[in-house]
Design a protein that fits this description.
Blueprint: E1 2-6, H1 12-24, E2 29-33, H2 38-45, E3 48-49, H3 65-72, H4 78-91, H5 101-114, H6 118-138, H7 148-168, H8 173-188, H9 194-201, H10 205-215, H11 221-239, H12 244-250, H13 256-267, H14 271-283
Parallel strand pairs: 1-2, 1-3
Length: 287
């Protein structure tokens, strides 16, 4: 069978070809074309289109195309269903769906940024998903820190640091640690979610969600992260020659359209309009 989808794959458009070749059709041919040509080329090449709007193999509600393949072909392998929320969370930018989603997104975005040939990107991605499948099959409960004693010592140390910091200042000690974590996230294009942060800080996620806005500009956790992403995007628009797609990658957005939509919500302008205005100001400082 031939399968066809949009060019420049990252998550779903690599995870689905992996699933097709490993569990549905080992000889499947995967074809990448510009978005506007997918349906036309599908008819010409007699290929099945996927991961675009208006076709059978696509997103439904909060489910991504990978989920639909599992349902369509009635794939029961438990490891695939462990992988599904990880892929869904990475593909829909909902990193609360699974703790591994942020890591998958970061690796996939980095690969797409480094590798410009879609077919080479797919071959490299096959190894990533083979590895994820192996983990989901044999290692999902394994932790990097294996020793119970080491776990206990880490917990005691974190509790000690928190209590010690709270004695010195009215501002909870976790706020400083969290600011550093968020800054590292922004600087390295890693992704944070409330569940992961609460585990790292050894704080109840409900408490963290409730208290966060008191110490971070009266914004919720998600609003604050988006604000910092937009601020970094503005800096890159002003000081770099990166394309808008590249800036979207570097600031953690799932694709350029997602980047443009959130940027417009925050600034009232699209990234391209904002960059043009910056250029005009530099060219005519008095204007």
């Amino acid at each position: 069978m031939k399968w066809i989808t949009r060019e420049r794959p990252k998550i779903d458009r690599i995870a689905c070809p992996w699933l097709i070749r490993r569990f549905i059709d080992p000889e499947a041919e995967i074809i990448f074309v510009p978005d506007s040509q997918v349906k036309l080329q599908a008819e010409t090449l007699q290929a099945i289109p996927f991961d675009i709007p208006g076709v059978e193999f696509t997103h439904y509600e909060n489910q991504c195309t990978f989920d639909y393949f599992l349902k369509k072909y009635d794939l029961k392998d438990p490891a695939l269903h462990v992988m599904a929320p990880i892929i869904r969370g990475a593909d829909t930018d909902d990193h609360a769906a699974a703790s591994q989603s942020a890591g998958l997104w970061a690796i996939s975005a980095g690969m797409a940024f480094l590798i410009r040939d879609d077919y080479e990107l797919l071959e490299r991605g096959m190894f990533i998903y083979d590895s994820l499948y192996t983990w989901a099959t044999y290692l999902p409960q394994m932790k990097h820190v294996q020793s119970p004693t080491e776990h206990l010592l880490l917990q005691i140390y974190r509790t000690y640091l928190t209590q010690k910091g709270e004695k010195k200042t009215k501002v909870p000690a976790w706020t400083a640690e969290l600011r550093n974590m968020i800054q590292n996230h922004i600087d390295t294009n890693l992704s944070l979610n409330l569940k992961t942060v609460s585990e790292d800080l050894n704080i109840n996620p409900t408490y963290l969600s409730r208290e966060f806005s008191r110490y971070f500009d009266d914004l919720s956790f998600g609003e604050y992260i988006r604000k910092l992403r937009i601020e970094k995007a503005i800096q890159l628009l002003d000081t770099s020659t990166h394309s808008l797609s590249e800036i979207g990658y570097l600031t953690g957005f799932s694709d350029q359209s997602h980047f443009t939509r959130i940027f417009r919500q925050h600034t009232g302008k699209s990234p391209s309009e904002f960059r043009k205005n910056l250029a005009k100001r530099k060219a005519d400082p008095k204007g």
